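Input record, target 12 of the design panel.
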């Protein structure tokens, strides 16, 4: 078998010196409701919620506090984990590969400001903290986000992937022009030995200007390509002695696929459409199906509708995980904060106008109308849940004007410029305008999201739950979480959720959900900011 090129797991002294390794936790919970066993943490958790009903005669609301008894089991053995990137040779894939290598080996480089050490800034898992509790003096105690429960560390990941362009990852890094030249020089030799596997290329789904890159593509029918991708995943797992593999789409934005009855609306129809070579099966959906059938979690980092209804049904049937859509790196992340702030302050946004221009290959691909439309859809939905939550400011069906413009300007490269204007109605019919100018280093903001998505997705493969009640005649079975990983929403512009469940776009709520779900895994109550110990005392 041809060797699969990878960045192998770290065993060197430089990585060990940082103390960075998979499976570390910062504390143990002292509680009768938490059990640390051999290979797993089990917790009993009472989930408090409020059920609201409306009286049909009077219209009055009744709120009833309720409790649900959950048990969680988290396997503590992280094992050896691989990450396969679709679009490995793109700006994001080459940047995250070079950056992980620099962190793993402790490679520093010179800049005009002096020596720069590698870091994982921008990763919520690796560069942010969560409040654990208070100490004996009622002072807050914080721990790293990735040390609440055992999580995989990117320094230990094995990386591989596919690309429609045959360029090795070292040259792809140079082509991207993202990282400083001195760092590129220091990691080039190792990266240049890494070559992407042939990928799937259907010209109808990405911009025509990408054709010149497509020199590393799979031949054959769609069914044959599906089987080839499945074999790639199996070979990668076997060749690197991996316990599990996660697949992530970091490639070009595709046009939206039409949702057609009898084609991609159910799992069986989608599999038949692939066998028949139907034109509306996109490359990204083919990768998703291959991953699902191999039991490898799949995350879509671009805005197109990869996870068509048939793909979601297939994931549920195969008990495999999927997540998406579209890395939330700059402009949209700020929008999800500002819109939430304005609406929660009782201020009514009436117009949000967003403009950005960029010069990398993503921008070049988005210059085509069909691909831009995919991005426009993913960016447009970000304020929907916040607007829908406030029936005082917005009547039913009312929504702010929301305009999005993206232009391709080659000279700015990866340094995207984003300009936003928020016009809001305030007290007594007044108007308030907020203008924001944001320079986003696109790939340096997206790469930590790839790492966070990988880490959180991997964790969810080791977690199971069950609900308990006094009425249980037999012990309930342990089950995995729902196949659609909505817990990933913090990192994604247009979160995909299970059918019939709400979409949450507000950034603070998304982070709070991640934090408190991890706390539940170790039997800790959700964090809140009541701070009664500092308010209700004498």
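The sequence produced for target 12 reads:
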């Amino acid at each position: 078998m041809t060797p699969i090129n990878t960045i192998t797991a770290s065993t060197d002294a430089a990585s060990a010196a940082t103390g960075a390794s998979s499976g570390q936790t910062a504390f143990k919970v002292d509680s009768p409701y938490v059990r640390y066993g051999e290979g797993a943490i089990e917790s009993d958790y009472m989930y408090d919620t409020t059920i609201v009903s409306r009286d049909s005669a009077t219209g009055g609301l009744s709120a009833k506090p309720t409790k649900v008894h959950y048990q969680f089991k988290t396997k503590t053995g992280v094992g050896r984990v691989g990450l396969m990137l679709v679009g490995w040779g793109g700006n994001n894939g080459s940047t995250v590969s070079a950056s992980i290598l620099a962190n793993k080996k402790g490679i520093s480089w010179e800049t005009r400001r002096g020596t720069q050490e590698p870091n994982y800034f921008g990763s919520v898992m690796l560069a942010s903290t969560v409040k654990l509790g208070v100490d004996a003096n009622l002072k807050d105690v914080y721990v790293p986000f990735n040390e609440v429960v055992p999580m995989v560390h990117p320094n230990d990941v094995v990386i591989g992937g596919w690309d429609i362009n045959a360029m090795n990852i070292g040259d792809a890094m140079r082509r991207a022009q993202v990282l400083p030249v001195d760092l590129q020089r220091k990691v080039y030799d190792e990266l240049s030995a890494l070559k992407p596997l042939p990928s799937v290329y259907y010209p109808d789904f990405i911009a025509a200007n990408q054709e010149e890159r497509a020199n590393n593509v799979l031949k054959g029918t769609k069914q044959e390509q599906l089987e080839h991708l499945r074999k790639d995943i199996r070979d990668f797992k076997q060749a690197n002695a991996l316990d599990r593999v996660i697949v992530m789409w970091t490639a070009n934005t595709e046009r939206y696929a039409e949702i057609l009855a009898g084609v991609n609306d159910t799992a069986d129809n989608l599999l038949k459409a692939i066998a028949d070579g139907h034109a509306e099966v996109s490359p990204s959906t083919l990768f998703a199906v291959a991953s699902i059938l191999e039991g490898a979690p799949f995350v879509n980092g671009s805005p197109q509708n990869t996870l068509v209804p048939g793909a979601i049904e297939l994931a549920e049937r195969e008990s495999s995980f999927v997540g998406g859509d579209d890395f939330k790196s700059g402009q949209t992340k700020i929008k999800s904060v500002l819109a939430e702030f304005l609406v929660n302050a009782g201020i009514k946004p009436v117009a949000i106008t967003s403009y950005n221009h960029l010069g990398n290959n993503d921008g070049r691909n988005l210059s085509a109308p069909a691909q831009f439309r995919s991005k426009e859809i993913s960016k447009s939905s970000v304020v929907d849940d916040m607007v829908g939550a406030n029936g005082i400011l917005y009547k039913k069906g009312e929504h702010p004007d929301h305009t999005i413009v993206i232009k391709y300007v080659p000279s700015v490269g990866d340094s995207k410029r984003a300009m936003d204007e928020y016009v809001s109605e305030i007290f007594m019919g007044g108007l308030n305008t907020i203008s924001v100018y944001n320079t986003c280093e696109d790939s340096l903001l997206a790469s930590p999201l790839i790492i966070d998505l990988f880490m959180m997705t991997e964790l969810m493969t080791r977690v199971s739950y069950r609900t308990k009640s006094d009425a249980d005649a037999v012990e309930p079975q342990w089950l995995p979480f729902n196949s659609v990983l909505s817990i990933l929403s913090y990192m994604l512009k247009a979160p995909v959720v299970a059918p019939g469940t709400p979409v949450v776009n507000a950034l603070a709520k998304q982070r709070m959900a991640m934090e408190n779900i991890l706390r539940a895994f170790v039997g800790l109550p959700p964090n809140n900011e009541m701070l009664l110990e500092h308010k209700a005392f004498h």
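The CA atoms of residues 37 and 76 lie 9 Å apart.
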